[in-house]
């Protein structure tokens, strides 16, 4: 699972995206900058009003593809959450929550649904310290390693009811897991109440095994490996349906990143903002109704 450094890097991308001057293209996570620490300096600068514009421009210049990917990913996960709650989900689970602010910024959409955030112990402790200044939210923080612990047992001990329809967001986690960690999590999800939804993002397996050589992807792989957090798992392009079918799950949508760019980053005049990491996508799975 991602470490604190990765969680902070992703949060910085969200914070920069929230500074995008065009409202329709802006990352909706307007709380991201408030979760970031005052060190290192780059994270701190995005918290200072007089420096925000400069930092936003710098990140849009040096990490544009990652920042716009994060805008699309955030909006996609937000949509699944909102739609699932509207359809009757009574529980929200954020797996590998990192510095996710949804419980605080989407309180109206979440309403009375119970929120559970699952992460490694040290990440959970950091998160709880960081959100003290945010709008209040009723969150149950639970500690688990998705590759080692029994997720179902951890959640049930924390008050989670597998018989209640649930929406699970699994953002920015699967590439860092081994295959067994992904499979175990999907098996857990498949046992939840009918109608439960799971949204997750993934990279293409082809960029991991070298059968597709994409310079932008190779650069990202080098970056994460240099941090000691290599990407380990992916899905072959166009095969998400097979992955889910093996667990008797229904594929609601497999949205490749390039298609997500058109959905979420298109201006009113028809022009599309970019660049974006395009070597993966976003999936929405559902436990079939009985």
From TrEMBL:
<dbReference type="InterPro" id="IPR029063">
    <property type="entry name" value="SAM-dependent_MTases_sf"/>
</dbReference>
<dbReference type="Pfam" id="PF04072">
    <property type="entry name" value="LCM"/>
</dbReference>
<dbReference type="InterPro" id="IPR011610">
    <property type="entry name" value="SAM_mthyl_Trfase_ML2640-like"/>
</dbReference>
<protein>
    <recommendedName>
        <fullName>S-adenosyl-L-methionine-dependent methyltransferase</fullName>
        <ecNumber>2.1.1.-</ecNumber>
    </recommendedName>
</protein>
<dbReference type="InterPro" id="IPR007213">
    <property type="entry name" value="Ppm1/Ppm2/Tcmp"/>
</dbReference>
<dbReference type="GO" id="GO:0008168">
    <property type="term" value="F:methyltransferase activity"/>
</dbReference>
<keyword id="KW-0949">S-adenosyl-L-methionine</keyword>
<comment type="similarity">
    <text>Belongs to the UPF0677 family.</text>
</comment>
<dbReference type="GO" id="GO:0032259">
    <property type="term" value="P:methylation"/>
</dbReference>
<keyword id="KW-0489">Methyltransferase</keyword>
<keyword id="KW-0808">Transferase</keyword>
<comment type="function">
    <text>Exhibits S-adenosyl-L-methionine-dependent methyltransferase activity.</text>
</comment>
